[in-house]
Write a structure and sequence with these properties.
7-stranded mixed beta sheet
Amino acid sequence: QVQLVESGGGLVQPGGSLRLSCAASGSIFGIDAMGWYRQPPGNQRELVARITSDGSINYADSVKGRFTISRDNAKNTVDLQMNSLKPEDTAVYYCNVKITIIQPFGIRREDNYWGQGTQVTVSS
């Protein structure tokens, strides 16, 4: 079994900062891409930032220059540092990790796993 546990959400004033963390645990053989998505109220889930196993990064245009994604391969974690937060950043944030596990008979299986979501509210 694989688990993703998120932490770090909360209420912050406009212009403030928050740091989200996501830790993957369980019977993990390997991890490929790790990322953060968000779902604003009444809207669809959208990509915020993504980092591949070789360190390639892409950001949504709306967060470039304000958010920074990083990963620690030794700890199986991915963080999202969010600065200069705006009210429009308000959303439930989800981490997403592509993980390979070893099934019975040595068969590898790769799936996308989602965290439980953490609320980020930017408001004065």
